[in-house]
Design a protein that fits this description.
alpha+beta; NUDIX_hydrolase-like_dom_sf; 3-stranded antiparallel β-sheet; manganese; single chain; metal-binding; 5-stranded mixed β-sheet; EC 3.6.1.55; 21% helix
Length: 192
């Protein structure tokens, strides 16, 4: 007797692929910002988890922060290639294990990065291995993050443009900054 096919194997049935296909992506044009990409990896299960890292306290920047696996684009790399390479380097996610759905809205950081989040689905229960730059791999369920009281504040850019900032306090971790901004879009606009 053969196992039933997993409906998430069919991209046309995956609610995240459908959601991504129905929305218009908002790219940024920031020529003086350094290009980077992150992998927003959701487990392929009815109640998906998202792969996040706690960055090592030994790193020169962003130490101790919660982040998606990711980093700067190398010469000639696309955001998808960079996100998959960085996820392999940081959490041992084999590039072939990620089913890339597409790119989310670009975001920027105050320290000069123009980041493209790449949305992908990965098998549930996949064994991940952290690199020395990662203190811990955490995989909160999206349903738990949605249920949290989101903390919101507004900051202003030098020209006066207001920018919303979000914080998600999850099991002793403070998820904030660019990571929380991308999560906020997923949690408030993505499929339930």
């Amino acid at each position: 007797m053969s196992a039933s096919p997993d409906p998430l194997d069919d991209l046309q049935a995956d609610p995240w692929a459908l959601w991504l296909g129905e929305r218009r992506r908002a790219p940024l044009d920031l020529p003086h910002y350094r290009r980077a990409a992150v992998l927003v990896a959701l487990t392929r299960e009815a109640s998906p988890r998202v792969v996040l890292t706690l960055r090592s306290s030994e790193l020169p920047t962003h130490r101790g922060q919660i982040a998606f696996p990711g980093g700067s684009l190398e010469a000639g790399e696309t955001p998808t290639q960079a996100a998959l390479r960085e996820a392999w380097e940081e959490v041992g996610l084999p590039p072939g294990a990620a089913r890339v759905l597409g790119e989310l809205d670009d975001v920027f950081t105050p320290v000069g990065f123009h980041v493209t989040p790449v949305l992908a689905r990965i098998p549930a229960g996949l064994a991940l291995t952290r690199s020395p730059e990662v203190a811990e791999i955490i995989c909160p369920p999206l349903a738990e993050l949605r249920a949290l009281p989101v903390l919101r504040e507004t900051r202003h850019l030098p020209g006066g443009t207001p920018v919303p900032l979000y914080r998600y306090p999850w099991q002793g971790h403070d998820i904030w900054g660019m990571t929380a901004r991308v999560l906020h879009d997923l949690l408030t606009q993505g499929p339930a």
